[in-house]
Amino acid sequence: MELIVISLASLLAGFVDSIVGGGGLILVPALFAVFPTAHPATLFGTNKGASVWGTSIATVQYSRRVQMRWHALVPAAAVCFAASLGGAWLVTVVSPDFLRKALPLVLLVVLAYTLAKKELGREHAPRFAGQREALMACGIAAVIGFYDGFFGPGTGSFFVFLLVRLLGYDFLNASAGAKLLNTASNLAAILLFALKGHVWWHFVLAMAIANVLGSLAGTHLALKHGTGFVRGVFIFVVSALILKTSYDAFLR
What we know:
globular; mainly alpha; single chain; 80% helix
């Protein structure tokens, strides 16, 4: 029964993650509910062990239909991997609790800006090219990758928003790029958690299969309905993240 519950949660998480990120909003609470006495690091490691497969498959699916900006995204993925490792190491030394109350406010600013700028991310018009675009993408990857390793909630949504706002991508192309970057940060987290023995591999296989199935369904819908659909899901997910992180920070 435990495996069925967390596999269903992983399926839904893969679906949401593949469109705009935020799958952790579903899978992490499910793991904590099913295994309330488990070490948090083990549940986080198991979550990453499953979700990395969904983001990887989504990256492949998007790359077949979307013109990926590989010259910028590949070096950014490498930077993201290193930054995530750095963040994960720092969290073993410094508590991230100070971010809990700031996160809902940051997400609220992101949501308000997206709603106010109704044309934001509707047209794909990259602002930079060549080395400058790669440097900008690496800067985004360094900041958000480090954040993902150190704290994590909303990582996919932050990637999407910054690729849209700073690089001029539309929401569909930003979601495609975010999947590659999120895969890199997830791999870094898995490496760290696995070395410390914080991954339940016997659960990961079934969860990974479910996550991939959800990811395939979500990617299909995103590619079929385009950037307007992805923008709508982005607004919904960020709104849900604001509610969840506000509850965690101020009411729990």
